[in-house]
Predict the structure.
Amino acid sequence: MGIAVARDENRESVGPAARMVALVAKKLRLLKGLTQEQEGALMGYSGAAISALERLVHPVSDEMLVKLEEVLGEGTGIFDDMRLPVRLEKLPEQFRDYLLIEQQALSLYLYALPNVHGLFQTEAYARAQIAGGYPPPSPERVEELVRARIGRKAIFNKEPMRHIELILDESALRRKFGSEEIMREQYRYLAECAGYKNVTLQVLSLDIGLTGENAGARGELNLVETDDHSPIVYLEIQDESVLITEPAKVTTYAHRYAKIRAQALSARESLALIERLAGEG
């Protein structure tokens, strides 16, 4: 009884993009004359997993969309094109508009507080952070959000190359999630990201306030140059978010970001700090 109820809830929560994937995947499978077991074998999944996809018991994952394109898409890109819409509808509603902007951005200027920015999180760190939130999400919801967050990393490999700056408040580095090993892995990953040609990573030290100034005291900040070269600001706190396009306000936030960057440690000093944290313990 409990399993049946859970399956019904899963079906009801599936968004229109995932529903369309299930419908198209089933039609293409039947056109090719494949059984669910045969399709599953070609994709590296069980027949039961294909059945669950088609019946909306388990919404399609990003990894499964990649395999569907390989086995059923035949170079049309139909399932590749569905990856972003499917990812979007798994995210909290207030974040969806920004994700579209983020993934199409030419440049990102990010100040992260109080956690490591989502674009720069490892899977284990993301899972620990999301699972530990309140109200606590279900295990299934945790995995949906983790997959969606990790999927955002596609922007690092887009052409033309995107310019991405991240300033991490040192408190975000020292706030720990999951375990010491998860944190060491996160530090190592940040050090790896710092080596990307299109990434600049800096740290705003904990003691910056001792200088009499701390431009980052008001919280996180996302400054985006859109694909038409328009600047916008995205702010988020306590599950609420706002997109700001008013030129005067955007200019103020841009100046604030520039001041945060000027007060932060240099890229070389920041990397040295992250590498020290990775080596602790």
